[in-house]
Design brief:
The complex is a heterodimer. By secondary structure, chain A is of the alpha+beta class. Chain A is 40% helix and 19% strand. Chain B has an 8-stranded mixed sheet. A 3-stranded mixed sheet of chain B has the order 1-3-2, with helices on both faces. In chain B, helix 2 packs antiparallel against helix 3, helix 5 runs parallel beside helix 6 and helix 10 crosses helix 13. The chains are: A alpha+beta, B alpha/beta. At the A-B interface, loops of A face helix 10 of B.
Chain lengths: 481, 486
Amino acid sequence: MSWEAVIGLEIHVQLATKSKIFSGASTAYGASPNAQACNIDLGLPGVLPVLNEKAVEMAVRFGLAIGAQINLYSIFDRKNYFYADLPKGYQISQFETPIVGAGSITITPETGSPRTVGITRAHLEEDAGKSIHDLYSGQTAIDLNRTGTPLLEVVSEPDMRTAQEASAYFRQIHTLARYIGICDGNLAEGSMRCDANVSVRPSGQTEFGERTEIKNINSFRFVEQAIEHEIARQIDVLESGGQIHRETRLYDPDKDETRSMRSKELSNDYRYFPDPDLMPLTISEAFVANVRETLPELPDARCQRYRDDLGLPADDAESISSDIDRANYFDQAVNGGAGAKQAANWLMGELSAYLNRYGTSIADSPVTPEQLAQLIQRIEDGTLSSKTAKTLFDALWKAGAEDGDEAQVDALIDSLNLAQVSDDGALTQIIEELIAANPKQFEELRGGKDKMLGFFVGQVMKATQGKANPQQVNDIIRSKL
Amino acid sequence: MNDVLSLREMSRALAGGEISSVELTQDHLARITQADSRLNSFITLTEEEAMTQAAAADILRSKGDVRPTLGLPIAHKDIFCTEGVLTTAGSKMLDNFIAPYDATVVTKMADAGMVCVGKTNMDEFAMGSSNENSYFGPVSNPWDVDRVPGGSSGGSAAAVAAGLVAGATGTDTGGSIRQPAALCGITGLKPTYGRVSRFGMIAFASSLDQAGPMTRSAEDAALMLSVMAGFDPKDSTSANRNDTWLTDILNNGIADLERPLVIGLPDQYYENSSNQLSIETARKELEKLGHRFKSVSLPHTDAAIPVYYVLASAEASTNLSRYDGVRYGHRCENPTSLQDLYERSREEGFGDEVKRRILTGTYTLSVGYFDAYYLKAQKIRRLIARDFDRAFGEVDLLLTPTSPTPAFQKGQLTDDPVAMYQQDLYTVPTSLAGLPAMSLPCGFSQDLPMGMQLIAPAFREDLALGLAAQFQRQTDWHLKRPGEIN
């Protein structure tokens, strides 16, 4: 029998607000334990939550970016359960009335064709703290710095059918969240985490099978591995006559397996009810309109523009548009006068190599997009050869990285003496001297031994320290034959 | 010992240089030390902090500060967080809790130059109508020490009635300012929900809790209210309003009513009260002052007690989840697991009434019961509020008894929680509707004070205060003192 998997993801997007969702404490990562837990985060007697408007704005940004219904009226509820790193004994979340309603995004899995994944809803909530079990023997340490960090929980429809699709969806949400500036996207610091709901059913069956939930996956690779594993496990169970039980499972990347955490029958009754400390959240049409105006061009639209208007190959368009910093850099280079194809090549070639080598992000690149644009223009007008262009790029990088100076491209070409010798007379003289000095080789070339052309071009380059325009050199030599 | 002055009288004495805040404060502390062993109205005396505040007030006055509140000694119910001072909410759970911050009410009163002499006793987490639910022992009624002072602000009520302080803060969720005010023969005001910040006030039921003044007269209540009230950005449920009468009251006292009022008498409040006689006397006084009376109906009154106990318990059950033994407060000895830590810390730290309400609230919020209890109660709550809206279409204020009975004997109702809950019969509906209401003395029954309740439309505390001040200029019920204390 062949099987089909059905997958839905719940992604927790940590919103990039400076302060927490219900208190003024900082959300910065990496402070010493509990240094960023204020009286409100600690759940002291008598404290009250006050909603951070920035978090609301970011939720609306996300909603608009996925074409979702923005609910002008939403409600914060208490989700009640006891845990040592949950100071109030409840989490403030949105249950029945979330701020963002149904929307969708398009994903492009590595294999397979693009498809639309429905997003059921997205709601605001506060994060809990962290329990650290391996720091003190027999004791649990609690760090409440993360407590109250704003989260947007994005719930997908069960629209994905393969682990690759799920991973592509997670990536796409990651791209989008970074694009619209609501999340720093740092997976290692837990800025985005996901839970996967997985079930399998015989191919062709319309009803869903019983599902399990895999908790707290924090990398694209693990999402794929965990789901892959879980699908295989469920198929094994079913094929050997067993049954899938509704349960929560944990993925162990070291062993590449999921294991049962708790069964749903024993799960908490969260006793959701509207938080009486917070008024229902009402936002105006004008607020939504203001947020809409500040939205950047979104990745899909950008990708399409790169393909259709700028003529980039699909792969390049996809790769550049998938990261907002890269796309912004590219746009600035093109606006600065670079040809789109050249700009794309440099961006994905030399620039990427340098960024990787020096561990620098593109937003902090020592070579500015304006400089790259000028460099490309100097290639296009024949001033630079591809070789001297690379020398110039290296010099620009170093000037920018070491001195923090934005070197003048043309001045640097002059001072490094990188301009191609394109002057016919000068090149003709050099070539004539070379022919005179190497009569045997010239005869061979004349006799049809094309390999000798390379010899002469090489000699010209040597004589000009690589600055001769290769095409021109070719032309002059051929004219002598 | 001299009879304690009212806040306004002290204010005048301070302004006239007849006495200093330091002297006043010393006098208060001495009186409390002498009398409170019988009453148990205070949990904590803050002598040192009080003397520092009083000295600071005297210095300010010497530099020309003439604010009417400067240097006035008061007490806070032990439900308000006070930085560096034990803050217990009457519970063993917090018997070691030194608050690291001040409640907004505490800050505002300190900023106004008022001197906090101590923290008053209360029913645990404000749950109770007799002050017998305090971990720190019951409070006695100054009129008869074998009787209860009412609750939950029983410590504040007893302290004011006994003249230990002229004003104390209280909090009212279903009657916890008004009922003890009535039982102790003082004046207590529960403002409109949202009028006074709840930040730093230990939560019982968030949608109902409201802080207010407990004093001997409407004038003093108005003085305190003008300091306590105001929008607080730290409380999302506080009301952002600009009622200029609040500042006028601070500087000039309660203004005369502009016209005689039409006062509503809700039928449903006069069916079973043993308080009829004193209300009747009060009514005649008010008629003499030119006010007219009119019968009104508040048809959903009967449902108020059950609705209140569903909603208040639901909110309380989750508000009290934070007391888990993990970060502060009572923690059991040698917990063997997280579950054990929770179970024993809460088992040991909470008293019976608190446990009863946590259980009730947990039950009514559970899947399968939520619709039948919580949601239904919310719907009825709206109907109760609508009853009042309709009534205020016809009348300016409502006059009712505050409590069904005068102060009862200690132990009389402790085994019958439902009978105890009936104490709140006349106070709970206004809490559910979020309306301002005040209780003031209106007579005696069996030598025990009786209170009447004035209920006003939302944010019209000025109306209730205006009528109360006028009434108190004509009558002397509020001037009577429990003889055995003085």
